[in-house]
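ugh ok fine here u go
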Amino acid sequence: MGSLRRVAEQLRLPPHILGVIDPADTDHRATVQFGQSTVRLAEIARQSGHASEAVAELWPLVARLEARLEGGHAEREVLRLLAHAPLGLGVALGNVLPEERLATTAPGPPRA
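structure:
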């Protein structure tokens, strides 16, 4: 990590671009710490028949992760969470939305 930090300094890049996380970045640590738990708990809620609660938990997490990524913070742990959280959100939304509206909400591939 020290070498990556020095490379970032020499290239005048923010260290997070190279995956170096500032130990004082509490937002990152909190997101990673609680993100995986949120994904797991949302899955349990969905499987227990509480899909709307799962959506309520995952929606803010996904928004926070996407905002962090758009801000240039592409840490490995955040990317992993961003791979799992939207998937869980989509599944939970599929349980919440009525069957007849699901086709209009999530259109399939373009027709030739």
